[in-house]
Amino acid sequence: MLIVAGTITIDPAHVDDLRSAAEVMMAATLQETGCHEYRFSESLASPGTIQVFEIWQSEEELAAHFETPHMATFRRVLANLDVQGRELHRYEVANVAKM
Question: In whole angstroms, what is the distance from residue 23 CA to residue 92 CA?
């Protein structure tokens, strides 16, 4: 299992544009095989900072995600939003247990 987590930072004036694209992206991605969680959320502490959280069953399914039409569309939207920062990390998870 893989977790992808981090942030994308944009000009706060463009958050509504990103929100529209992110809603479409989240809905489409959650239908993909191997996607357990896919979420963008706005930081309350830092306007313009979007928190990203994803859970994938396997490396292969995450790699397939990067080749989808909705990912290509989302990348085009990001390219027009003057992204100021991007800090995403992939974590490989050996075990999962409820707390």
Answer: 26
